Amino acid sequence: MDQETAKKLLVEGGTFVFLRVPSETQFGIDMQCWNTEEDFRGVKMIPPGLHYVHYSAVSKGTGDIAPRSGFMHYFHKKEFLVKMWDKKTEDLSKEEISDESIQRLKDNLFNLDRHLAPYPYEIWQKWKLLSSQITAELAAKLAPESGMIRASVELLSMTDAERPRGVKSSSSSISQENEKSPTKEDFSEEQIAGHSSAKRAKRITREEKEKSLLPDLKPVPGAAMRFTEIPQDKYPPDATPEEITKHYLDQSYSLELMIAQHNEPLHIIGELQFAYLCFLIGHSLEAFEHWKSLVILICSCDEAIHKYRSVFFHFIRTIEVQIEEMPEDFLADIVMNKNLVYKKLREFFRTAYVSKVDGRLLTMIERFKDNLTDKLQWDFTGLDADDEDERPVVVKLDDGTQ
C-alpha cells in the first residue's frame, strides 16, 4: 500500500491480538490465509468495517488440518480486539479476557507491534465488493448464536442428548492456503453426502430405509446457521389454480416473503453475500446450498425486477464478482452439468428480455451476460425461445381433445 494509506491505517486501523497460537496453525482474515510462526500475535492496520477471522488447528505429528472455524466481526476505528487460544480444545478460548489484561497489552503496544502482521491491503477492494451489503447487525442475525462459523458442526442425537454425534475428524480437513480455490475434496464425505440432492433423488428409497435405522440428529445448541428460511409454499393461502400456476412461474411472492423478514430489502443481498463467504472462506456446504437456493429464487422472479430494482441492481454486482471467485471445480459443475444455477441465470436473462427491463439495470444485465459468455463460454443465445425441457407439454385426453 502507499505511504499515505499506511499512515492512515496505523492511526485508524483496528488491531486483532491472538495470544498463545501454536506455530504452523492456519490463520487468516478475509480472503488471505497463512501458517503462523512462533512469534505471531495477530494482525494490525485492519481497515474499519466487517471482517472474517478464521483458523484451523494443525497436528504437530501428522500435519493433519482440522476443519475451519471462524467468526465475523465489525472493526471500528482504532478497535483493539483480543482473543486467546485454548490448547486443550485446539480452538478459540471461551475464557473472558479482563480489561486489565487488555490495557496491559495496549500499554505494551510498542513491543507487541513487531509481532503483528499488517492487514493484506491488496485484498481490501475485492473484499468490500463481496461483503458490501452485510451490516454488523445482519451478520450477527445470520451467524450461529455462538458467533462461531464452522465447516464441521458438531451434532447431537435428538433421542439421546448424552451421546454426541458428528465429532470433528481430521480426515475431513483441508490444507489450503489460497482462499480462491477450495475444492470438493476440502469437505468430508458426510458433508457432501448430506448436501447432494442428486444422490437423494437417485436413491431415495434406499436412503429412507437407512435413515430409519439412524437417530435423528440436530446441531449442538447455538451452533447452527440462522439463514432465512426459503418459503415452502410458493403461493398465498386460498390461491386459485390459476394463481398457483402464476406464482410457480413467477416467484416474486416468495421473494417478498423473505424480504419482509429483513429490516430493509437490500439485506436479502447481504444474506446472499454472507452465505457465499461462509462457503468460500468458511468451507460450509450448508452455506453453499443456501446461496444456491437464493440465486435460484431471485432468478425466478418477474414482477419483483420492477418493484425492487435496487435489489436486482446489487444482485448483478454481487453475483458477478462471486462467480469470478467461485472455485474452478464448482464452476465446471455448473457448466458441464448445466445445473440449476446456469439454467436459472439463463431464465433470468430471458425474463429481463421479455419484461423489457431498461436503463442502467438493463445495461448491467447485458454486460454481465456478455462477460459470462466471454470468460466461461456460457451459451445464452436464443433467449427469446423456450428451452426444450421448458416447452409446454400437450396432453391428449380420453375423448381425443388436447
Automatic annotation (TrEMBL):
Keyword set for this entry?
A: mRNA processing, mRNA splicing, Spliceosome
**Pfam families, per database record:** AAR2, AAR2_1st
Give me the Gene Ontology terms describing cellular component.
spliceosomal complex
Q: Region entry Disordered: which residue ranges?
A: 160-205
Start-end of Basic and acidic residues biased regions: 177-186
Where do the AAR2 N-terminal domain residues begin and end? Answer: 13-144
**Among the record's GO biological process terms, what is one?**
spliceosomal tri-snRNP complex assembly
Coiled-coil region list = none
Residue span, AAR2 C-terminal domain:
227-380
Q: Does the keyword Oxidoreductase apply?
A: no
Q: How does it assemble?
A: Interacts with PRPF8 (via RNase H homology domain). Component of a U5 snRNP complex that contains PRPF8.
Physiological role:
Component of the U5 snRNP complex that is required for spliceosome assembly and for pre-mRNA splicing.
The family line of this record is:
Belongs to the AAR2 family.
Q: What is this protein called?
A: Protein AAR2 homolog
